[in-house]
Amino acid sequence: MADNLCEYLLAPAARTPDKAAVVESDESGTLTEVSYRQLAALVDEYTRALEPLGLEVGDRVVVEAHTCATAVALLLACARLGLPFVPVSPQTPDNRLLAILRSVEPALHARADGVARRDLPWAGGTASFGRGGLTAQGTQARRTPRRRRALVVDTAYIIFTSGSTGRPKGVVMSHRAIVTFLRAVIADGLVGAADRVASTSPLQFDFALFGIGIALGSGATLVPVGREYLDSPRRMVGYLRDAGVTQVHGVPSLWRPVLRHDPELLKRLETVRSVVFAGEAFPLAELRRLQELLAGARLVNGYGATESMAASFTDVPDPLPADQRALSIGHAHSGAEMTLVDPAGRAVTRPGVVGEIHLRSPALFSGYWDDPLATAKVLVPDPLDPRHGQKVLRTGDLAYLDEHDELYFVGRADTQVQIRGNRVELGDVESVLTRLPAVASAAATVVPRGSDTVLMAGVVLDDTAAPFDEDAALAFCAEELSAYMRPRRIRPLADLPLTENGKVDRALLARLVTGAGHDGRTDIDATPRSPA
User: Fold this and answer.
1) Which among 99, 154, 340, 352 is least surrounded, fewest beta carbons within 10 Å?
2) Is the dihedral of CA 60, 202, 314, 355 positive or negative?
3) Is residue 184 very low, low, confident or very high in pLDDT (cuts 50, 70, 90)?
4) 444: pLDDT strictly greater than 50
5) Regarding predicted confidence, which is higher, 161 or 294?
6) pLDDT at res. 425
7) d(Cα 381, Cα 169) in Å, to the nearest integer?
8) C-alpha distance from residue 303 to each of 66, 206, 218, 276, 399 (Å)
């Protein structure tokens, strides 16, 4: 079945069996190669171990592991058998993992060798896996299967993201959807068979699955980078260099420590030809510096949501113009289309007018796990012509078109706030704050003040030990923003608070920026120091 995720990603084993599929470090830190032939053999071994366990098509398997060759092999074995895999990281908090287990009721919770067993009140089947095979305990007895074969419309995996209610939200993706997406992006030339693709995200994030899929689907080599390397700029650069990495995937903040503390290290990455970033805004000052240090490397701005894996990949101009204030998200990948829609359901075609992005694509998710109401809110009839029954993804993202019909992201519809009766997009405020000298990143939030709300912001400086001139920052905002859009206070932070899924935790941000001042008053009680 060519559209089964396993068969698609293992196709290079027939063409280039001895080529490295995965390059990773062993326990001693030595780089080892796993060929496509070896990866395919490991998938076969795991498949044989899973087949007698009484599982049937549609049964979920939670896979707790770091990104590595054995984890990739188990994901593919599950895909081959029609068992939707649910990837989680060993760093996933116990309460969140338990919530996921109770939600998907997996037939099996498989942990990689070396991952500690957790004392959780969950009594389902478990397994451990590694280079020596897969061993299961407490699985159900074989039963008469209701399903006999895996189909391309079946679920390949479920990725859990943060839900607005605090309950994890499971994004269900079919084999056909993910394979269609990977084929389109590879055909667009994002990656080639000669590449060595560094994946830096934990396995529970779709960015990690993207790296696995784009590398193996193109016949390239996957290079997982462990957290022990990412915590040190010198170790990270050394690992990327030793592994001969040509393309690096990661969130923009991946680059911040090395840019802040030892930027000249980046000149050692002679083999890196491209960087793909996504998940958060890349401060333009940092991006320009990265462009200078990785001279000639292609920098690619990825945009999209877990519900479609991604929607577009847009090259950053080289050099990035000094007067450019935002990055384009361009156009959708091959076979997909992004349309701006106004609140009345009409297409937005005039440059500069903000609308909500709606995505048409054959690679959309099937729905949210066990949540039809939430699914119906985002998989909606095409607002331009609902009569044909086609569903599109209502992304919740706001953007505008420029004169060349390229899209520019401006923020989330759910980050629009009301300040004294005026609509304020927090992304607009944050964009201004990142243009402050020495500011690496910024986030804004609203906090209550009596019956009113006020804007406040936190900023991360290039040099966190440097003094921060808040008065100058507020004066800059007064020149750039209307009065109702100006933050009342701007507080320097060591880092922006993030949720487990890498998004700004605005509730925690509000608590951090409203601490007591030196005079004992809280910031929300202080007299505003920006010009009226």
Assistant:
1) 352
2) positive
3) very high
4) yes
5) 294
6) 76
7) 22
8) 25, 13, 21, 10, 12
